[in-house]
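Lab notebook page, bench 4
Experiment: in silico fold of construct C2
Operator: M.H.
Input chain length: 189 residues
Purpose: comparison with the prior construct
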Amino acid sequence: MSTLRKYQYGNISVQKSIMLLVLFLLPLCATMDFSVSFLFMCLFIFFLLWISVVDIQTGLILNRVLLLFSFCWLLQQFFIPLHSIGSVLCAAVGSSSFLWFLRIISGGGMGCGDIKFVFVLGLWLGVNGIFLTLLLAFIFGGVAALVLLLFTPRQFCDKMPFGPFLSLGAYISFLYQPHFFRILEEGFL
C-alpha cells in the first residue's frame, strides 16, 4: 500500500490522538468552562494536531482534512462568531497570498498544503491571530532548521514539514493573542 493511500485520511492511532489532545487541553481546562466555545476550541486543537502528525508522517496536508476544518469554522461562525466575515476573509486571503509569494520566490520551497492550511487558519484566527501565527511559525521553524543543520547530517536543501510549526503558532495565537497585543501596545505607548 502506498504512503499516500495509507495516510489518505491521516491514519493516526487513537491512543496517540487522545494523548496529544489531552496534553494540549490541560492548560485550557483550568481557565475555561465547558461550553460551546470550549467545544470549538477542542475541535480547533484536534485539527491542529491531526494536520501536524500527518504532515510529519507523510509530508502532506490533506485537502479533506482542511475541508472538515473549514466546515467546523462555519459551524463556529454560526454559533459564536469571533471575527467579522471581512476580517477573516482578509486574514485568509492575505496570509495565503503571502505564503504563495514565498513559494514563488523560493522556487517551490513552501508546499501548497501549507498555503491552504494558512488560509483556513486565517478564517479561524482573524487578522491579528494569523499575523501572530505566521510570526511564531517562522521563528519556531527557523530555530528548528538551524538546530537540525548544526547537529544532524542534513543539508540546506533538505525538506522539513512546516505544518507543525504553523499549528504550534496557531495554538499559541489562539490562546494568547489578546495578551500578546495588549503587551505590545503597552510597550510602545
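Observations: Residues 3-188 form one domain. The first helix runs from residue 3 to 6.
Next step: discuss at group meeting.
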